[in-house]
Amino acid sequence: MVEKSIEEINRRIKEGSVNVVTAEEMVGIVGELGAKEAAKEVDVVTTGTFGAMCSSGAWLNFGHPEPPMKMNKVFLNGVEAYSGVAAVDAFIGAGQLSETEGFDYGGAHVIEDLIRGKSIDLHATSYGTDCYPRKTLDTTLNIYDLNQAIMINPRNGYQKYNVATNGINRTIYTYMGSLLPNYGNVTYSGAGVLSPLSNDPDYQTIGVGTPIFLGGTKGHIIGEGTQHSPETNFGTLMLRGDLKDMSADYIRAANFHEYGTSLYVGMGIPIPILNEQLAQSTAVTDKDVVTNVLDYGVPSRDRPVLRKVNYEELRSGSIEINGKDTPTSSMSSFKKSREIAGELKKWVAAGEFFVNTPSQRLPAKATCKPMRQTTRNPLVQDIMAKDVVVIDENATFHEAAKMIMENTFSHLPVVSEDGKLAGIVTAWDISKAVAETGCNYVKDIMTKRVLTSNATDPIDIAARNLDMKEVSAMPVIDKDRYVIGIITSNDISKLFARRR
């Protein structure tokens, strides 16, 4: 049985005799020597990851202006920062979007600009008090003008990530990037073999107070991250580091098309090899890290799992989805992760970075719960019109016009001979047909690619689909494409008005 102490390893770091390797190198060492001999030979294994971590941000203290002010609304380059704590403190979140630039600029960009030493416009307002009489403030400052600029990331370094693909017939835009229709691509994140928590899945050495590489400087783990779920192998970390010492080489803002902004964070953890078990766990390979491929085309918290996959398969460039070879691409940088593990290795080998025993272990028994909702979310079936009138595709447009005039609607679902949805025709389509020649039948003028809804879809999803496609009504169909209702933007507007 091999047993080493933190003090023994730190003495070797101080003396310059420590043997430190990266997690990638450890795979070969354990493969050649076995876990027992590897534990004798290796003192520290370094890990690294560089990926988009939306749950990141920074606490900033601006100092007091003259006259003093209790800032209750704070904007940095047009991005709102949370200020509900004290007079001149604010938290800028990476995912907060600019009031004026939308998806193009957000809290992540403010953080990167601060690290780069750029000037930031501060606009603040207040209600004014006897002790804080000032009501408005505008100034320009940079990171060196701040008293503190402390990165506090509530949830970073996921043990692993779900893999994303899209089974519906249009491109969707997510925090996992753009997902092409009909399982056209697969995106994933995470460093696999270099993933910090995959190298110490039992949190033997990773815990509260563990020193880490964060953004190019030394930071610390300050607890388990939000949504920490070790029982499902989705552990997370809460991190702290001094923004003033960080480098834009390891902290980068990003825009995700039609989704928003995020912050790429470079993070690495040194794992002291105290025993054979740790030597074995740090020999984890890409093949050992298995995760789920989810269909993000399903707009639900509980997306269907299409298959299991490991990081070796993901990094090969393609995986099979429904019998089709589907290209994979990473949302994180393995090259940068490798660079971070290598940089941390240099720090330890040079005697500039020591390991320690956590002051508190991370919870090993926990799962992430879904939100408790006390009100039921209305479904399409709650407000759709069920006495929907349909027309045969072989009917004339005059018959369609008559049907629309006799009723109080302007959208008419069209069905084929077998009664299934074939298209939709509107009053506008009929007006065009009257003005044009050569169109006698409904099938000639109907829209064939119809946006549809299911009865059990949440109203919010139906509203978003109507808005995105700029249409005002959708037939509601069953699993066999028979029309069972119709829902309009007017129905949804009335519902939302009642909810307000």
UniProtKB/TrEMBL annotation:
The keyword Transport does not apply. SUPFAM superfamilies: CBS-domain pair. The keyword Glycoprotein does not apply. One of its GO terms (biological process) is methionine biosynthetic process. Signal peptide: none annotated. Keywords: Amino-acid biosynthesis, CBS domain, Methionine biosynthesis, Repeat. Coiled coil: none annotated. InterPro entries: CBS_dom (IPR000644), CBS_dom_sf (IPR046342), CBS_domain-containing (IPR051462), HcyBio (IPR002708), MA1821-like (IPR016426). Residues 384-442, 446-500 form the CBS domain. This is CBS domain-containing protein.
